[in-house]
Amino acid sequence: MSKPSRFDELNLSRLNLISAVDQAEVTEWDVTFENQGRVVRVRCEALPKYAVPHGLDSDVTAALLNLYIEQGESEDGRFAVSATTLLKLCGWHNTGKYHATLRHCLERLHTSSYSVSGGWRDHPKGRWTHAKFHFIESLDFSSADQYGTFDERTVISGRLADAIVASIRGGYIKPLDTEFMLSLSRPRTRALYRILDGARFDPDHPDQPLDQLEVNLIAWAEQCKLPSTVPGNIRRALASPHEELVKRGYLRAVAITGRGKAQVIRYEFVREFTPMDSVLARRFRNYGVADGVARKLLREHGRAFLIECMDRFDALVQRGVLVVRKSKAAALMHLIGHPDEYPYPGVASPERLPAAGKEISLKSLEKASRMEPLLNVPTVADELAALPVEQQAEKVVARLSFLYRKRLNAVDLDSVRQAILEGRAAAPQVLEEAVAALARNEQDVFVQSLKSQLERV
């Protein structure tokens, strides 16, 4: 997977297309506001049976965005995933209740339509554009019955909106600490965190987060898509999320001043709260490094430098060049603080890293990569064989969906995944044959052979 970090698309987080309420009954909303001299109008229309996207839908949209990024950012926005894996990405339990909830969330995101007038940012061109879309433009899934019930075998395939795909591929994204977001207690709090985290970023300078934010209470309620315009009701709706975000260390303080419709909310963010993508957080925890220490290291050194140090640490330990005497955490911290004292693995005369506290440059990274010996390069089969069978099946499903998107539907992918899980098909062999058939321009032959094999077993 190309980008293991967790991100959010800035148009979605800034405009907020998901109502920050636990339950919704309305079938549309229409918000108009002024931003930097521009009049922006955002509208949502939903089917009566689903209501507008709200609550848990925010978890699903964040999961789908990062799934799309991790599966390689295909040009047409296609994605494929099992319901079981998508539930994990959402931070939900793998139970029948959440299978049903996931299905309804996906249907709602597929059928609800959005219209953004003058407020969708085309980041590469530096322009504000209009956009009309469904978050999920196409949706296909396998099911246990004629009613579309999700179960343990369900595979979901779909396509994200072109506007969202173009924005992600154009780099208009920001870090999103999904582990922190999913640890928050209620959907409303998670949605508000995501909205606030998007509002911290200047659309013209997305690399410069704000320390403070002041918003009109009524305008903020519209931004959060809260159903009431009564100041007292708005304050009560936001009170619990505010309390939790302060308690959890994301907000330093929240103050509401003024009277009536002129009330203003003043948010103060904790400057030291640095978003941690899940890969960095997981790796640091494996070494025994606390989250607080990891955030401090990220602020001081930058992600690229830390990843390079951890990779070098692992290689040196594996080859016996570095012997851990106390703890992995202490040894890794010393390497990060004194990089010049450690060699690059596999070279006799190591080049030196930048001094501690400086983020490694692209030129240095390129130089380091050239120094690594090009021996024993793992094949696709090697990489898959090293994974648990569940991950092997997910990778094959995602890859086949990308390579054979017009030839294999969700039901076909369901059958392939199940065959791998049950040991009736070998993931490395399936994927190698798929790639080889593509190179020979024999896709139809491969698909026919694959389906025949699955039918036989």
UniProtKB/TrEMBL annotation:
It holds the Pfam family RPA. InterPro entries: Replication_initiator_prot_A (IPR018777). This is Plasmid replication initiation protein.
